[in-house]
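thread: overnight batch results

M.L. [08:02]
morning all. the overnight job finished for the chain we discussed friday. pasting input first so we're all looking at the same thing
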Amino acid sequence: MGERLNRHLGPVTSLLPGMYTTETMSGRPAVSCKRCGGIYDVPSTHTVDVEGRVVPALACPYEPCGFLDYVTLGDYREEILR
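M.L. [08:03]
and the structure it wrote out:
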């Protein structure tokens, strides 16, 4: 099933755990880990489809978090169409 992250329309600096934004310098979505709150861009080795599914599974890079799961970026279709 995986985790669903909520869309945030503000900048990366205002993300709360379990949110994502596309308002980034890199142009890649940035996520805030649901477990530890760490903020990082979705790696370029991952794809995000039009429905917001991130493939492969997303791993939090912060130690000792250990979060690893499939993630869906909620309302991503609306985000890429605006």
